[in-house]
Amino acid sequence: MRGAVIHGARDVRYEERPDPKIVEPTDAILKLSATCICGSDLWPYRGIAQTKRPTPIGHEYCGVVEEVGAAVTSVKKGQFVIGSFFASDNTCPHCRAGYQTSCEHRQPVVGAQAPMVRVPLADGTLVATREVPPADLVPSMLAASDVLGTGWFAADAADVKSGKTVVVVGDGAVGLLAVLSAKQMGAERIIAMSRHEPRQKLAREFGATDIVTEREDEGIARIKELTKGVGADSVLECVGTDASMKQAIGAARPGGYVSYVGVPHGVQLDGQKLFFTHVHLHGGPAPVRRYLPRLIELIESGKIDPGKVFDLTLPIANVAEGYRAMDERRAIKTLLRV
C-alpha cells in the first residue's frame, strides 16, 4: 500500500509502504474510513522534533476491522472502531486508574496516515460503535481518537464544573474542542484566547462566551480584567510552548487548576514562582481510551459535532499539501480521504 512517510523537515511523501500485518496475537488490522493530520505532527514537520530516518507518520484513526489476531475477543471483523494514539491493555493498575496512556505495556500506534493500520493490544485499545456510522459522522468519530479526547481530558484535568470560569489557551483543534468539552461540563464562562477570526467563530459556536486576542503578560492582564482581578477557576493549556504554559499559570486564580495537554517543547518553570501561585497542575498525554465510550455516545446522539474542526479535506495522496496548509495556518485541521 501507499502511505505518508516523513523524511525530514517539511518533507512528507506519499509513497510505498509494507502492508500492515498481524505481528502479535493481540493485534488488529483496520481499514481506515478516514485519517488526518495532528497539530503535534507539525513538530517533526517543522524540524523542531528531529526525524533521523524516513518514518511512517500519523496516529489518529477510525475504521472497520479487517483482521484480528487469535487472542482478540472484544472486537471482530466488520465492526467500526476507534482507538487512541497509544495502545493499552486496559487492565494494568494505571489503566484501571484511568491513565491508559501510561499503561505498563503501552505501545504507540504509528503510520495511520494510510489506508490501513495495525493496532496492538486491540482488546484494550479499540472501542466499537453500535453500527458502522454514516459518512457524515465519520469526521466526528475520527476527532474522538485524539483531539476531542485530548480536549476533554484538558477540561477534566482542570476540574471544569458547572458554574466555573474557564480559560482556553490555544485555538488549534485541541483548544477548540477543549472549549466544546468545557461547555459540555457546564462551565458558565469560557474565555477562548485566539487571534484568528475563523477560529474565534468556531470557538463561539462550541460555547466560548469571550474572546481574548492578547498574549503573554498582556493576555494575563486581560484575563484578570475580565475576572475582576481574580483569575480563572480553570485554565486549559493546549499549545505546549513556554509562553503558553506561563500564560496559563498566570491566568489562574490562587487555588485554580491548570491542565496542560500540548506536547511540551522548551517549557521551563520557575519552582519558586510556581510555589506561590497555589495553582494545581495536571496534564500529560490524554488518556483518550478512558473517555471514548462517552464521546462516542455524545456523537451518536447528535449532542456534539467535533468534526467541525476539519476545515480542509484532501485525498490522502495530497497529504503534503495538508501539512503545508496547517503549517501556514490556512487550515485548522486536515482530514484525509482514503
Brief characterization of the structure:
Helix content is about 30%, strand content about 25%. The protein is α/β, with parallel strands linked by helices.
Write up what this structure looks like.
With 338 residues, this protein is an alpha/beta fold. Strands 3, 5, 6, 9, 10, 17 and 18 form a seven-stranded mixed beta sheet that branches. The chain has a six-stranded parallel beta sheet with strand order 13-12-11-14-15-16, with helices on both faces. Helix 9 links the parallel strand 14 and strand 15. Helix 5 crosses helix 11. The chain starts with a strand and ends with a strand.
Give me the secondary-structure topology.
Elements: E1 2-8, E2 11-16, E3 28-36, H1 42-45, E4 55-56, E5 61-68, E6 80-82, E7 86-87, H2 93-96, E8 107-108, E9 116-119, H3 122-125, E10 127-128, H4 138-144, H5 147-157, E11 165-169, H6 173-184, E12 189-193, H7 197-206, E13 210-212, H8 216-226, E14 232-237, H9 242-251, E15 252-260, H10 271-275, E16 280-283, H11 288-300, E17 312-315, H12 319-327, E18 334-337
Parallel strand pairs: 11-12, 11-14, 12-13, 14-15, 15-16, 17-18
Antiparallel strand pairs: 1-2, 1-4, 3-5, 3-9, 3-18, 5-6, 6-10, 7-8
Helix pairs in contact: 5-6, 5-11, 6-7, 8-9
